[in-house]
Every structure is written in structure tokens, then in C-alpha cells.
Amino acid sequence: MSKILVEVSARHVHVTQEALEILFGKGAELTKKKDLSQPGQFVCNEKVTIVGPRGEMAASILGPVRKANQVEVSLTEARKLGIAAPVRESGDIAGTPGCKLIGPAGELEIENGVIAAKRHIHLTPETAAEIGVEDKQIVSVATGGEGRKLVFGDVVVRVSPNFAPAMHIDTDEGNAAGIGGSVEGEIII
Hints:
It is a single chain. About 15% of the residues lie in helices and about 45% in strands. By secondary structure, the protein is mainly beta. It has two domains: about 10-115, no CATH class; about 120-189, Barwin-like endoglucanases (Beta Barrel), CATH 2.40.40. Strand 3 (about 30-35) and strand 4 form a beta hairpin.
């Protein structure tokens, strides 16, 4: 077994430059609030409102801008919004439901892109080789807070030289395991 940092990822939105300008005005740029564990990724000061058939909620935008718009929510949040969000890997948005995004300068109806992110581990090629796993391999991770120990199955390994080693779970999963913020987990191959 190998140790891995396990982080809870709150709901968030990824936007294209075009969407950013619709929501925040012509020439808008993302402004960094704080860095995330993945190199080059950051939480922005900019927030939007996600609107579904049954509700709405605010969410931070994560930067930098992307090639496609994507909204990542937990399954509980998806239900509150009235959106049947599938569990998918980030970036796999074909055939997913859409929603409305509202910013201070405008609104945008996205046709697809609402997902509940599949739990996953980011690894560099070197770390993956040390652990003995490959890109897209499915593993389990044991973790949990006091009285909430849990083994997460169906964890997809994602390998890239641009990653820093960390596992990401959503707020529903974090709550189930009694995790607030981040803890250490054990990869089970």
C-alpha cells in the first residue's frame, strides 16, 4: 500500500474565455484567490450562480480558463438543483445535462457539462511507476476520520507529468468518511 493525500473538492465551475466574457464582461480575466494542489490550477475570486430546474447555488470558478465549460457538483447538490448529473471523469462531458450560469455581467445557458466528478488520483509518471499503477487503472483507497473509516472503490488513476500526487473526492464522499479538507489515505492495488 502507498500513501496519498486525499482532498475534498467542493463544487466548482470551469469556463472558456468566451463564457468568462459573457458572465463577467468583455476582456474579463480570472483573478487568483489561492493556488490548488495541482500545478497551475487555482481558485478564482470570480463566482457564478448555477441554476437548475429546482434550485440554484453559488460556486467558485477554477482557473485557468478551459476549452469547454464544466460544472462539478456532488450528487446531493445535483438533486437540489434538479439536474441528473452523471458520475464522470473531468472532461468527459458528452451527453451530460446542462444548466444556466449567472455572472455579474450576463447569463449563459450551457448545453452540457454538469457532472459529479468520478473520484480519482492524480499522479506523475514517476510516482505511478513507484506505486506500480498505470493511467486509467482502477484502485481502492482506504481513508477516513475518527469513527468514519472507509475504503473508496472505483478510484481512477490519472497520470500526467503536469500533476502533483493527490486524490480528489467530492463533498458527499468527504462527509461520508468524516474528512474535512484533506487527510492521508492508503492506495490499495
